[in-house]
């Protein structure tokens, strides 16, 4: 047993030394854990920001002027006036996302107790801004009409009072949450790519045969590649958590970083075994890349980070329960956002460990069948 542990340790060191001199992989890891997290998190927002608005004011009344003046930054750009005949052209040419049409006699009808309509034309090809921005505009219009009619800027008394309290991310900064989502995606990608590339490189250079003629077992070779590449990814993940997520983006980390590291190691056990399994199927690096893309993209996009699992079809929800990324994303959200303890996230840890064990058995079977 002691000899096997020594073999695994020395083989892992060989992997780390080989990675050290592979400058392309080193640059890829640094790039993924810095640029690929910071730039998308800051550049991709879930909130409405700087949406372009045009308006057609046929009423030219005090109420219509109030509505137009209430549309302000940072959610919207300053509205610009257009003619009614220009509405279709403005939307077709993507000059504006929203066009507000205030009909003639609007203020008169409001004061008379009628229910006049304000039309909002939306360019729905900008999906994110179209949905949220239309809701913002309707809220602004309703508030301005209520204030103009009643003279009071508060909402009418309701039988109940709804109080919303945000425990994490009080300002609802999407970059805080998206940075963790992109971090999990980079961990997933690298934990699959690195062991796959390492084993394919061994096959292309013929060094796998050298290892197999030595007094080494396939399980020792596999575990060595798993722990070495997991060490690289875990180190990069912790660096990115403090440098990119907390330092550059400014997202506060409420939970235990030690528990996050432990859960990341459990996830890497499953993800790196998946990379080894793919390496036993592919014959060269291009094939490995083609095989990994149909796996990395779905499990990275459908793990519940960008889209809630509840909004997916039931069949897809059940399928994604067999993906380690689904449990890892839920684990990260609970630990980093909600300060959850081990007693809350043990189910996710067990699920990732079980999936990793199944992949380990499959990788071992394929490894023996491929290199015997």
From TrEMBL:
A GO cellular-component term linked to this record: plasma membrane
Signal peptide start and end residues: none
Residues of the ABC transmembrane type-2 domain: 134-370
GO molecular function: ABC-type transporter activity
Entry keyword set: Cell membrane, Membrane, Transmembrane, Transmembrane helix, Transport
Stretches that traverse the bilayer: 21-39, 176-200, 221-245, 257-281, 288-306, 345-365
Primary localization: membrane
UniProt subcellular location: Cell membrane
Bilayer topology annotation: Multi-pass membrane protein
UniProt xrefs under PANTHER family: INNER MEMBRANE TRANSPORT PERMEASE YHHJ (PTHR30294:SF47), MEMBRANE COMPONENT OF ABC TRANSPORTER YHHJ-RELATED (PTHR30294)
Family per record: Belongs to the ABC-2 integral membrane protein family.
Name assigned to this protein: Putative transporter subunit: membrane component of ABC superfamily
Species in which this protein is naturally found: anaerobic digester metagenome
Lineage, uppermost ranks: unclassified sequences, metagenomes, ecological metagenomes
């Amino acid at each position: 047993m002691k000899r096997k542990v020594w073999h695994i340790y020395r083989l892992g060191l060989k992997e780390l030394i080989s990675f050290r001199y592979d400058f392309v992989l080193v640059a890829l890891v640094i790039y993924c854990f810095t640029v690929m997290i910071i730039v998308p998190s800051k550049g991709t927002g879930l909130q409405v920001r700087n949406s372009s608005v045009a308006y057609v004011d046929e009423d030219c009344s005090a109420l219509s002027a109030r509505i137009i003046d209430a549309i302000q930054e940072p959610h919207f750009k300053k509205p610009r006036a257009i003619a009614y005949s220009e509405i279709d052209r403005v939307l077709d040419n993507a000059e504006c996302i929203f066009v507000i049409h205030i009909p003639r006699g609007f203020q008169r009808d409001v004061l008379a107790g009628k229910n006049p309509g304000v039309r909002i034309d939306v360019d729905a090809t900008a999906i994110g801004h179209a949905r949220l921005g239309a809701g913002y505009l309707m809220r602004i219009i309703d508030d301005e009409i209520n204030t103009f009619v009643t003279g009071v800027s508060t909402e009418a008394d309701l039988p109940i009072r709804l109080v919303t309290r945000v425990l994490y991310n009080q300002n609802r900064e999407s970059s805080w949450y998206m940075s963790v989502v992109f971090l999990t995606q980079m961990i997933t990608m690298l934990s699959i790519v690195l062991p796959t590339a390492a084993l394919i490189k061994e096959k292309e250079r013929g060094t796998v045969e050298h290892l197999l003629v030595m007094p080494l077992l396939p399980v020792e070779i596999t575990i060595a590649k798993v722990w070495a590449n997991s060490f690289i990814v875990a180190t990069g993940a912790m660096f990115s958590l403090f440098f990119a997520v907390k330092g550059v983006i400014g997202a506060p980390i409420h939970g235990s970083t030690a528990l996050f590291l432990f859960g990341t190691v459990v996830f890497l056990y499953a993800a790196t075994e998946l990379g080894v399994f793919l390496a036993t199927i592919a014959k060269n690096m291009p094939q490995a890349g083609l095989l990994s893309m149909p796996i990395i993209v779905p499990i990275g996009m459908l793990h519940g980070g960008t889209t809630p699992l509840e909004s997916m079809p039931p069949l897809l929800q059940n399928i994604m329960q067999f993906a380690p990324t689904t449990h890892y994303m839920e684990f990260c959200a609970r630990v980093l956002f909600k300060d959850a303890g081990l007693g809350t996230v043990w189910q996710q840890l067990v699920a990732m460990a079980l999936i990793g064990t199944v992949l380990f058995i499959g990788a071992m079977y394929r490894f023996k069948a491929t290199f015997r």
